[in-house]
Amino acid sequence: FGLDVIEDVMKALRKAAQKTTTTVYVIPIKMVAEAKKIAAELRRSGINTYIYISNRDVKKNVEYAAAAGIPYVVFVGEKEAREGKLKLRSMQRGEEKTVLLKEAVSILKDS
């Protein structure tokens, strides 16, 4: 095999890994109105955002995001809403942190 064949395979793998153009998947946890506001602000900031507002449980939503190749998930629950924050999870690294919306925007734009 030559280098050109390896390069073609690498390009194909990268393309296959990128299943979606969505950057973040917003999951409301009993806080649909707040989650909609956060999703709208993320979109206004130029971040491709998807929100699911039906009654699917959190685990199923996270599994969907992973299967779709969405790199980040935002959880909006009562505690986060009370603090004016959100929980941001990197699906690739499995790291989660609670941040202000403007911090999330910065992280998502830099990714």
Characterization of this structure:
The protein has 111 residues and is of the alpha/beta class. Helices cover 50% and strands 22% of the residues. It has five helices and five strands. The chain has a five-stranded mixed β-sheet, with helices on both faces. α2 links the parallel β1 and β2. The longest helix has 15 residues. The radius of gyration is 16 Å and the shape is elongated. The N and C termini lie far apart (33 Å).
Key traits:
single chain, 111 residues, alpha/beta, 5-stranded mixed sheet, 5 helices, 5 strands, 22% strand, elongated
Give a concise summary.
Helix content is 50%, strand content 22%. It has helices at 3-17, 32-44, 58-68, 78-83, 101-110, and strands at residues 24-28, 49-51, 72-76, 85-90, 96-100.
User: H/E order of the elements?
Assistant: HEHEHEHEEH
Residues in β-strands, percent: 15-25%
Instruction: Return the average pLDDT rounded to an integer.
Output: 88
Question: What share of the residues lie within helices?
Answer: 40-55%
In angstroms, what is the radius of gyration? 16 Å
Question: Strands across the major sheet, in which order?
Answer: 2-1-3-4-5
Q: What is the straight-line distance between the termini? A: 33 Å
Q: Which class best fits the helix and strand makeup?
A: alpha/beta
Number of strands: 5
Give the overall silhouette. elongated
Spans where pLDDT lies below 50 across 5 or more residues: none
